[in-house]
Fold this sequence. Notes:
This protein has one domain: Spore Coat Polysaccharide Biosynthesis Protein SpsA, Chain A. Helices cover 30% and strands 26% of the residues. The chain is built from seven helices and eleven strands. It has helices spanning 35-45, 59-63, 80-90, 110-117, 144-152, 158-164, 184-190; strands at 2-7, 29-30, 33-34, 48-54, 67-69, 95-100, 103-105, 124-128, 131-140, 168-171, 179-180. Strands 5-4-1-6-9-8-10 form a seven-stranded mixed beta sheet, with helices on both faces. Strands 2-3 form a two-stranded antiparallel sheet. A hairpin with a 2-residue loop joins β8 (124-128) and β9. α3 (80-90) runs antiparallel to α5 (144-152). The longest helix has 11 residues, at 35-45. It starts with a strand and ends with a helix.
Amino acid sequence: MFDGLVLAGGQSRRMRTAHGGQADKGLMTWRGEPLVAHACRQLRAQGAGSLWISANRHFDDYAAYGTVVSDDPAHADCGPLAGVLAGLRRSRSPWLFVLPVDVLRWPEDLGARLGAAARPGSPAYACTPDGPHPLCLMAHRDLADGLQAYLDAGGRQVQGWLRSCGAAAVDFPGADVLVNLNTPEDWERWR
């Protein structure tokens, strides 16, 4: 059993609107629903118990899909790891399955395979022929103190934290197994 966390707290710097401003990617409509709805449905389909959404704006909009958790103000500029830490601190289950809001395609066995590879002191993350997807991960809540220490010491790189705790890379072969919508060009490609 595990809880699910959707990372939707970023600033979407690479996703520009038609007016040149930044969009809140998780609330952008993809095939009739906001991306956050797709991510939440995927986490539930993979077996997530409680569902958490890491968001730092538009709280009421995100609350329609799960319980919103914000970054600790002490970690406001720490990037996605601050969201992971907030999720680990609030998880009711020992395990937390993390999925970025902008992931469009997922293997059906993503949660099961990450869960099989993860250990209490060592998370597991997805890796595809396109490269690592370090924020598609399964982590034990006992990692929270170590992650907080990493952030407090100035660490910000997700892969740096994963290396520091001996994370396991789980290979998912095949083209376009995991697809992220990071830019308007990605959006058009997968429309």
